[in-house]
Amino acid sequence: MRNSVYGVLLLIAGLLSSNYTFAQNNGPVENLMRSNGKIYVVMAVCVTILLGLILYIVSIDRKIAKIEEKQ
Predict the structure, then answer these.
(1) Distance in angstroms (rounded) separating the CA atoms of residues 24 and 39
(2) Quick check: 33 and 39 in contact, CB under 8 A?
(3) How many angstroms separate the CA atoms of 15 and 8, rounded?
(4) Maximum pairwise Cα distance, the chain
(5) Which of 33, 29, 52, 32 is CA-nearest to residue 42?
(6) Per residue in 19-49, pLDDT tens?
(7) What is d(CA 4, CA 8) in angstroms, rounded to the nearest whole number?
(8) Buried/exposed 13-24: b ≥16 CB within 10 Å, e otherwise
(9) CA 57, CA 60: separation in Å to the nearest integer?
(10) What's the whole-number mean pLDDT along residues 50-63?
């Protein structure tokens, strides 16, 4: 019972905090990065890091599956 109450409160807090992120205006930093094309470099780095993490997790999963088959 207690865990479900905490879950609901966490969900409500998350939903309320997301409204503030949508209300932000594009400031000078975002406009500067878009005009110089550097935003694409940032996005490429983020995508590369995420792909690396996903590949790492998949490789660990395969290794664990092989170890489980041996046992």
Answers:
(1) 18
(2) yes
(3) 11
(4) 59
(5) 33
(6) 665 555 556 666 666 677 777 888 899 999 9
(7) 6
(8) eeeeeeeeeeee
(9) 5
(10) 94
